[in-house]
Amino acid sequence: MSNEQRLTDYPPKAFETITVSSTAIGITASLLTNARAAYLTIEGASLRYRLDGTNPTSSVGHLAPNGGSLWLADKTRKALTSLRMIRSGSSDATVSVTIY
User: Which end of the chain is more exposed for a tag (fewer CB within 10 A), N or C?
Assistant: First the structure.
């Protein structure tokens, strides 16, 4: 049996759209109650993110490109609740989030 997790391993629970601007932001905390995973797609601009609860800057953090996606699966919800995002340039990014 594979250790990989798939979208079909979890039923969708919630959806939100986040505008990522010049102030770091995460997923709405109330949506993460009993969440096990989240699938994010990035549109409009690149962004930077961190999973340790520390706010990224426009130049420090993992780079997620415009058109990219991010799959977070976490039985303890630590990565989900600690995710912080900020735009990496002068344009805001739109992040669509499905919570599982």
Answer: N
